[in-house]
Write a structure and sequence with these properties.
The chain has 384 residues and is of the alpha+beta class. The strands form four sheets. A six-stranded antiparallel beta sheet has the order 3-2-12-11-10-9, sandwiched between helices. The chain has a four-stranded antiparallel beta sheet with strand order 1-5-6-4. The chain has one domain (39-381): Beta-lactamase, CATH 3.40.710.10. The chain is 33% helix and 16% strand.
């Protein structure tokens, strides 16, 4: 083939590929450009600010702050999974803190699905304040799109416990999945309102980001506020946060992606664990009722687990229940290994931010999770 003809063929192929790309839905184009979500996506999307407190409460630094020296095995483990922040707090004081790459105590990171636990707590506050009459209210009481058919049977409790039975597919790596569409698309409300019930609600746990997104729309309908404004008023400012957080939107002036995409610092995210350790109380002010928070941090054992071999023992109201060394304690978990652990047995908090996590699971846990706790417990043990 002559050179000129080759160039024309190549040009034609490029033109066809370009035309095909431009004809794709917005979310598909964005997904192909960015390929996979990362904690550095903070400024990739439009956001609503969740404004810091007028007077911030700084974490005290322990007298033995950062005296612990990681051994080579632990350093290699943290590096293997692209860790950028690792924080250990005990008795309300920072015991150990380390950052990698260009992360600092002021760097915002996307905590991904750890955001779900924030939504769960906000639902509790709205319930405490009477905006939500009952956790067993039908979703259709607040969202007209859920007033007909099998969807009309779904309750707020079903959404809180991931037992809605809706047809959501949880896969960031699949171009056509609803999760990919939610993350990169610009019509998240339309997406979740179009979901259909395919299983009986309230029977079996099945992790679905759509359930959390619907919770945020219930909260907004009940309170008359955006979820970011409600979070600012009821949690972020009362917890005396030192930095503004950002809650990513599906588009400029659009809806918060509340199943994911709360962006904050490691130190500020640790405040949620302190709130859990103090049973919903922050420096003398009860932000969420102890009764609600206790139920939120307890397994919804009346549901069947995802493995079909017994009751659910690792998930409450949008909060994970971690099983470690015979202990049980609440955890926030997000894509790429964004972890927050509140450990009452040690009056301790562990925060880990990073770029990736293991893809191997031991039942509900990825195999890297215990590794971070192993390191944290070594640090805690040194002062005992």
């Amino acid at each position: 083939m002559k050179k000129g003809k080759k160039l024309r063929v190549a040009g034609g192929i490029i033109a066809l590929v370009t035309l095909f790309f431009l004809c794709l839905p917005t979310y598909m184009r964005n997904a192909l450009i960015h390929w996979y979500p990362d904690i550095s996506d903070t400024y990739l999307f439009d956001s609503h600010a969740v404004t810091k407190a007028d007077t911030c409460w700084e974490w005290p630094v322990a007298p033995d702050y950062n005296t612990y020296v990681l051994d080579s095995t632990d350093r290699a483990f943290l590096a293997e999974w692209g860790t950028v922040a690792f924080l250990v707090i005990q008795e309300d004081s920072i015991l150990y803190e380390a950052y990698w790459e260009d992360w600092t105590p002021q760097t915002l990171s996307n905590i991904f699905s750890a955001t779900k636990s924030i939504v769960g707590i906000l639902i509790g506050i709205a319930y405490d304040e009477g905006y939500i009459g009952s956790l067993d209210d039908k979703v259709g009481k607040y969202l007209p799109e859920f007033q007909k058919g099998e969807k009309s049977k779904i309750t707020i409790r079903n959404l809180l416990t991931m037992s809605s039975g809706l047809n959501w597919d949880e896969a960031y790596t699949a171009l056509f999945s609803k999760t990919t569409q939610a993350y990169y698309g610009d019509e998240i409300r339309k997406l979740v309102m179009s979901l259909e019930a395919v299983e009986e609600a309230g029977k079996k746990y099945s992790y679905k980001s759509g359930d959390t997104q619907l919770l945020s729309f219930v909260l907004e309908a009940a309170t008359g506020q955006t979820i970011s404004a409600y979070a600012e008023e009821k949690l972020w400012k009362p917890m005396q946060a030192c930095n503004d957080a950002l809650w990513n939107l599906d588009k400029k002036g659009g809806d918060e992606k509340s199943y994911c995409c709360f962006n904050s610092t490691a130190r500020d995210i640790a405040r949620f664990a302190r709130l859990m350790l103090h049973k919903g109380n922050w420096n003398g002010k009860q932000l969420v009722s102890e009764a609600y928070l206790q139920e939120a941090m307890s397994p919804a054992a009346y549901l069947e687990n995802e493995f079909g071999d017994g009751p659910l023992d690792y998930y409450g109201f949008q909060i994970w229940i971690m099983h470690y060394r015979g202990m049980q304690f609440p955890a926030f978990r997000g894509l790429g290994g964004q972890y927050l652990f509140a450990i009452p047995q040690k009056n301790a908090i562990v925060v880990r931010f990073g770029h990736k996590r293991s893809e191997l699971y031991e039942r509900e846990k990825t195999v890297d999770m215990d590794g971070y706790l192993d390191i944290a417990f070594k640090i805690l043990a040194e002062r005992e």
